[in-house]
Amino acid sequence: MVVSTLIPVVVFLVGIALVVWSVEEFVEHVAEAAVNLGVSTFLLTVVLAGTDLENAVLGIAAAAGDLPDVALGTVFGEALFVLGAAVGLAGVAVPFEESTPREYLALTALSPALLALLSLDGRLSRLDGALLLVAFAPLLWAVYRLESSRSTRFLEAEDAEEIEADGRGADADVDADADADANTDATADATDDADDADDERELLEVGLVLLAIVGMTAGSQLAVMGARDILAAFDLVGLAFGATVMSFIASLEELLLTVEPVREGRPAVGIGNVVGSTLFFVTANAGAIALVRTLDLSAAVFAVHWPFFLGALALVLAFLFRGRVGRAEGAVLLAVYAGYWAANYLP
């Protein structure tokens, strides 16, 4: 009996782990390929910071796998995790001060407006999903316009710049060698070898991207299979499970992406992750899920999930407006997140 109960849990955890690994590999190799192709490093940075693909993949898979409530729960649960757990832990562990541009705070505050408006009729249709998905683009454009006049960089900026710098350095070395020995057979052979190596590397990048896509597909299917069996075995509500357990496990890396930059004295990077993730969750993430399947919103969505989300968002924005997140503020946010878990399972 115990073994049969543990099997779906193991399948669920393996599926999520495979999705997270596959998405990280996918983003890494697509980013490197994009930089090599001359795509703007800055634009790439903003896009990578604003999207949490592993969470979107799991939500879409849950919706497609006849678990719409689980999928909907991940939208609110992942946002609450970032706002409550990630920012809260950062404040408790490493109190920080940072002057966040007011435009970003206003943009983040307004971002849930469309989702709230479309939710008023008690459902999110495929048309609603399309509107939410499209709405993410102007938000990214607004961030790009704001960032173009500021020194603040979003997550992965340093990594992307290092990739670009390495690429430029390698190109410069090849060009210098070619200029110095252009008339020698040895240089011709070296150039041919370099071209062959570049071709092989490009093929390897493509192969790894395809492997990551397969991993995302297989992992999401395993996670959905495990989730379905867990719901049946433990008699759990899909909305609550998606908002708590599934979101918590799938979003654990958000702790590192928010806390680690703060610990290293770069709180702007952590704040950028919070802003970008919030914009994504309430637009493109929710939209992609609704586009797969129409979502019916239960009373719990309006009684529990919306109030906790808006409350946590208001607190985080207020703390950032003041320019400080200390231990007291962090403790409040962690308490809100703990209360969110409790509210999901209280009768």
List the helices and strands and how they pair.
Layout: H1 2-36, H2 41-50, H3 53-64, H4 68-93, E1 96-97, H5 102-110, H6 113-119, E2 123-124, H7 126-147, H8 157-180, H9 185-234, H10 238-250, H11 253-263, H12 267-292, E3 295-296, H13 299-322, E4 324-325, H14 327-345
Antiparallel strand pairs: 1-4, 2-3
Helix pairs in contact: 1-3, 1-8, 1-9, 2-8, 3-4, 3-9, 3-12, 4-10, 4-11, 4-12, 4-13, 4-14, 5-13, 7-12, 10-14, 11-12, 13-14
Describe the structure.
This protein is mostly helical and 347 residues long. It has helices at residues 2-36, 41-50, 53-64, 68-93, 102-110, 113-119, 126-147, 157-180, 185-234, 238-250, 253-263, 267-292, 299-322, 327-345; strands spanning 96-97, 123-124, 295-296, 324-325. It is globular and about 50 Å long. The chain starts with a helix and ends with a helix. Mean pLDDT is 79; it is low at 39-43 and 151-174.
Keyword list:
single chain; 347 residues; mainly alpha; two-stranded antiparallel ribbon; 2% strand; calcium, potassium:sodium antiporter activity; transmembrane; Sodium:calcium antiporter; calcium channel activity; transmembrane helix
Brief write-up:
The chain is 83% helix and 2% strand. It has a two-stranded antiparallel ribbon with strand order 1-4. A two-stranded antiparallel ribbon has the order 2-3.
